[in-house]
Amino acid sequence: MTSARHMHTEFKGAEMWNPNTPLSEDCLYLNVWSPRFNKTQPQNMALAPVLVWIYGGGFSAGTSSLDIYDGRILSKSEGAVVVSMNYRLGPLGFLSLPNNKNVRGNAGLLDQRLALQWVANNIASFGGDPTKVTLFGESAGSASVGFHLLSPDSHSLFQRAVMQSGSPNAPWASVSQTEAWQRSTKLAKLLGCPTSDPAYLEVCLQKAQPEKITAKQYDVLMQPSVLGLPFVPVVDGDFLREKVEVLLSTGKLPKKDLLLGLNKDEGTYFLLYGVPGFSLTQSLITRNEFLHGVNLTMTNENYVTREAAIFQYTDWTDENSKMGNRDSLGTLVGDGLFVCPLLEFAHRYSQHGGKTLLYLFDHRSSINPWPEWMGVMHGYEIEFVFGMPLNVSLGYTKNEVNMTKKFMKHWANFARTGNPDIDGAKWPVFTPEQQEYVTLNYNHPEVRAMMKAKECHLWNKLIPKMEKVSG
């Protein structure tokens, strides 16, 4: 999710996420996979449900052309139309200039909406049902799905939503207009554009080479952090009419079915990229390195709040254990940046929005090339959603082949009916009172409750109160 992804450029686990096509401003294309053009399917078949994919990458990197996002297996296996889109990224997609009506921010989100409008107008020609469109995305793509749920002008363009490991209320997912303006102005200065004349500033930035713009984008960040994303969605008064927290509490959410969930070890991936002391071969960290990692994660919180998190995530019977410090920091990063924001979104949406269903994915792929300690990492459910284990040349196990078939059926059934049940197993509706969810792996789905209840009370309730009290 950061430029530091290129630290491991020769490593297969990193390379699979790096763009496999040239950087270009001419990027607004979409891909369509349709069973209608499968010769084994009758041409008069009923219109199929449509699954529209939004990729992640921290709003700064990514492309729909990655091999892992190939929609042909999902489309063929489930008789669904699968669509993926590109959208503008980094400053090209999320620049917001002061008092400028032309460059207000959120161009990348508007690109996504434009793709959804294209789907609404044209997908029937590809055998897709425009009244059964399900958005699904992962990480920043999942946050994007959430932003469309929060933006009324998107509501008529889809009926259901799937959010995988990301939410719009996460601390990395949006910035205030003031912060967006400050970052954009700093980028302009780095590119040699004078900032005193708003009209000329826009012209100067338009003339700048996109390679230079993207190369300088991380220099606008004021301090290092585990997940530093320089150009992200902004509260612009249009696409996002209020702060996300306000939108989630107003009771004006759409009554659309929502399936959302997490992976067991959301935080470990980011330790390798954002915390000193971590590498592909080194992960055992000292107590001081753990504390430094906390500071890099909680960059906007004060000292008292950080101490509360340190208290929660320390094994006080063995606080100097290097393995314990590593595992605790991975859990803290995952909970603070992904797990607890998404669970708070689930709480709010289940109260004010539509039917809400929650999952936890807890299977580590047998061909995962990353170190074993990283567990079930951020992003590593995607291969099962898109059916990659059905490619026999990749060497997945028989259990994983069966599991990916179940995954695809869950997602496709949800797109068809709003109900992801398969094989008679009932998926409980998430409510704030019961907080039930389903575990997804190669075993029979298991119903559990109260995911991370204690930890998320800290992040979602206690820390905000402490920030207010301690200033």
- In what range is the share of β-strand residues? 5-15%
Q: Give the fraction of residues assigned to helices.
A: 25-40%
Name given to the CATH homologous superfamily: Alpha/Beta hydrolase fold, catalytic domain
Poorly predicted regions are: 1-6
Architecture per CATH nomenclature, i.e. the level-2 architecture: 3-Layer(aba) Sandwich
Give the CATH class.
Alpha Beta
Number of β-strand runs: 9
Gyration radius from CA atoms, angstroms: 22 Å
Overall outline: globular
Give the helices and strands as they follow along the chain. HEEHEHHEHEHHHHEHHHHEHHEEH
Structural class: alpha/beta
Total of helices: 16
- Which sequence of strands runs across the widest sheet? 1-3-2-4-5-6-7-8-9
| Domains, number | 1
Largest sheet: 9 strands, mixed
Active site: 139 (acyl-ester intermediate), 266 (charge relay system), 378 (charge relay system)
Enzyme class: hydrolase
Domain Carboxylesterase type B: 18-459
InterPro entries: AB_hydrolase_fold, AChE-related_enzymes, CarbesteraseB, Carboxylesterase_B_AS, Carboxylesterase_B_CS, Cholinesterase
